[in-house]
Amino acid sequence: MADPQSNARPRADAGAPTSGVIHVRTRLTADFTVIANALAQRRGSAVTIGVAAYILSLPDGAPVSIAALCEHFTEGEILISRALRELEDAGYLERRRERGPGGVIRTRTYFCDIPRWDVPTPPPPTPPRPRRPLAEETPARTPAGTRGTDAAPDAAPASTTTGPAPAPVADPEPGAPRTHETGAAPTATPLSVPPPQPPSSLAEADEQAVAILASLRIADPRLILSRREVAELAPAVTQWLAAGVGPAQITAALTGRLPDQFLARPSRILRFRLSEPPLAVPAPAALPSTPAVLPWQTCDGCERAFRAAEPGRCRDCRAEGEMPAATASGEVRRVAG
Questions:
Q1: How many other β-carbons are positioned within 10 Å of the β-carbon of residue 212?
Q2: Which residues are 111's β-sheet partners?
Q3: Are 107 and 96 in contact (CB under 8 A)?
Q4: Which residues pair with residue 110 across a beta bridge?
């Protein structure tokens, strides 16, 4: 009798997963980058992980500015800048402004494979303080069935003051500290300083800043701003002007290398570019004072022109006049003999 044969497919290897991804590993010996799983499997935006992997693959000294990253990726400036901020908040990236040779301010970027920088954590919210109950100021009542004459003769009444009743305490204004009716001192609460608010109308904004923002649509017709947007951006433009940046330079910084398509209002891109005002131009070093040029004078002896502060004789004539008289007289006698 022949052996039984089965037409069923052979069972798969028990070590391979039945679902999900199956990796085909290749041992790399060159042109590869090591990325920590904490960064590669980070929850959130895929653009952030891609930007981090690209920066890790670059050699030291490679440019990683927003403009350089926009040339490599298809995402726009807003997504790239958002990814860099997320990496900076997570502790992977740090940007420092350092002064180089010649007083030039440069931005140095430091990137690490694991978050090593100290990332400040927000403090936990303070629980609300329980309100203290009002003090009981009403006199204690005598139990039922007893007469008031049974009390001790030296017991003082609950209230001995006479006169008009105190006026009711009005509710404090919004934002003012509340006080208790018991006369306790109010608890001081810290007041936060509100940020500077933009001018409510264009009349309060700087005229030159308004003119620069209104003329941006000449360079790019898409940069059409409303009156409210111009009033919000005008203080930042004023800071740039105070730092010594000219109107033409501000226009070039706001209109250069814009994305092909705007995913939001153009004022958001302009607000991001104006968020960090430039440093003021340092005062030029004082040049050494040059010596004054002396006027021309005519020598009283040889009538030769020379420079001097006052009229007189030139250097050669002064040297001849300072010769010893004895030497001059001896030379004359030898010539006469």
A1: 23
A2: 93
A3: yes
A4: 94
Confidence of residue 103 (pLDDT cuts 50, 70, 90): confident
Would you say residue 156 has pLDDT above 80? Answer: no
User: What is the C-alpha separation between 45 and 78, in angstroms, rounded?
Assistant: 13
CA 255 to CA 270: how far, in whole Å? 9
**Which is more confident, 1 or 45?**
45
Sheet strands (E) in the chain: 93-99, 105-111, 296-298, 305-307
Q: Which of 23-32, 94-103, 250-259, 284-293 has the lowest mean pLDDT?
A: 284-293
Rounded to whole angstroms, the Cα distance separating 187 from 189 reads 6
Looking at residue 172, its pLDDT comes to 47
Give the residue-averaged pLDDT of 60-66.
89
User: CA angle at residue 125 from 122 to 127, to 5 degrees?
Assistant: 165
Phi/psi at 307 (5° precision): -95, 130
In the three-class reduction of DSSP (H, G, I as helix; E, B as strand; rest coil), residue 121 is classed as coil
The CA–CA distances, whole Å, from 161 to 6, 141, 176, 288 equal 111, 19, 31, 86
Q: Tokens representing 295?
A: 């006027």
CA distance 230 to 223: 11
On the CB side of 213, CA atoms within 13 Å amount to: 29
Alpha-carbon distance of 73 to 79, in angstroms, equals: 10
Query: How far separated are the first and last CA of the chain, in Å rounded?
Result: 164
Among all chains, which residue has been given the structure tokens 């131009």? Answer: 281
Maximum CA extent, the chain: 164
Do the beta carbons of residue 126 and residue 96 sit within 8 Å? no
| Closest residue by Cα to residue 213 from 237, 195, 177 | 237
Residue 47, SS3?
helix
DSSP string for residues in 194-251 = PPPPPPSSGGGS-HHHHHHHHTHHHH-TT----HHHHHHHHHHHHHHHHTT--HHHHH
